[in-house]
Sequence to fold (556 residues):
Amino acid sequence: MIEINEIKKTILGIIEKNSRIDMKELAILLGISEIEVANAIGDMEKENIICGYHTMINWENTTEEKVTAMIEVMVTPQRGIGFDKIAERIYNFSEVQSVYLMSGGFDFMVILEEKTMKSVSQFISDKLSPIEEIRGTATHFVLKKYKAHGIILNEEKTDERMLVTP
Amino acid sequence: MRNPLSNIVTDIKPSGIRKFFDIVSEMKDAISLGVGEPDFDTPWHIREEGIYSLERGRTFYTSNAGLKDLKIEICNYLERRFNISYNYMDEVLVTVGGSEAIDLAMRAMIDPGDEVLIPQPSYVSYLPCVQLTYGKPVPIELKAENEFKLTPKQLLEHITDKTKVLILPFPNNPTGAILEKEILEKIAAICIEKDIYVVSDEIYAELSYNGRHTSIASIPGMKDRTIVINGFSKSYAMTGWRLGYACGPSVIIGQMIKIHQFAIMCAPTTSQYAAVEALKNGDSDVEQMRTAYNQRRRYLVNAFKEMGLECFEPYGAFYIFPSIKKFGLTSEEFATKLLQEEKVAVVPGTAFGDCGEGFLRISYAYSLENLKIAIARLEAFIKRLEENQQ
Fold:
């Protein structure tokens, strides 16, 4: 783990919300030079702190079919193979969006995004359950997304302030 | 029929902002940079506390000076942030916004004929509040070449035998100017020597971008002659809750409480409960908003530099105060034309005192996206003006 300075923290704060911002503008907003910004970002890319510049898409507003499933997975770690090894076997499937090791009643939270519920259940029965160390799964389907990655989806914000105030 | 009105009231000029507001509100889909309040919503945990207090049926009056818990938190906050310590028992008064505190301070301290020094450009209510007490407002015209700071020299030039109070409006609305500790120390020395009281309006104290704000009350010898005015509107984005406070020597605060108790009774109870939460757990919200404002501030300073609009770098509040003198238009003409041609609303500097002529107040209490659109329009407008000048 790497300690990051104030400037890096601020950069992360900005690009986490808007990854399309360019270096020049970042430099202006932070009051530092473009080179400093480029170096900071370059460092953080190398250090795997910045892991990509993805786009937040609300698929629910399209006609595309998407099903998100959250699967609680219980495992029995084998001698010599810790959780990490089992996680690797799960996250290597390209269908898997996220895998988290959890405290509490189960071990992994696996998030899956598929076109249909059927393909989710197929994934679980064909690929996930056969893994030796997995003792059991409990699948939850997402019915509606209200907020994801800190963004309130479908929020309509209008500025209701008066146009001119002292 | 007799004239129903008092002369003192009819003599007060209506706010210049009001006039411009009427023009702007006629204009459909105008983009405004004219707002003097945060674009953020009050942080949810604070709103939630207000809602909870309503659910619990806390719909009663509080004591005149305010909830004990809130007064204690205000004292903790001022100590923690600005190194000034007050006794919550008799040195704090919770008011309906900072504006009420300004009004009360004037009424409690000013007799007819007393002179009150008001650095301008500054917030619109100081002057009328002094007039209502039959005091004499004495404007001090701050200069762009001093970055709109009050200089000790200017202060001395305006002091007479009748000067009783100096209003200190920093960080400043509309200029964004701040007063650093070194200047405050000199001003303090003058106030002590000439026996002048200070009403320090520090409502924008948390929005300082060049190190932490210094309160003049923290300078030795000043606490006994200073009323510090602050509130929740700007730092916690709580304008609509109408909550501010005044702190100072108990002799003055006591009299302010007396007027407040007859005129207002107490500040809104729901707001007071929400404010306790703000002071207890709101430091990081303030920090986040300050960071966002600071980024926008840098963006605007840079944008103005690039378009050749003369402007000093403001280090406080959320305003920037560029000069438009080179275009040969008055502030009001410029603002009106900009509104008509580009549908961008800004406030003419003259709304904040005659010496605001030649300047505009531009607020950055808007998202960066909004600012960018407005700035593009302003730039197009300026280009046209320059072409027409040639």
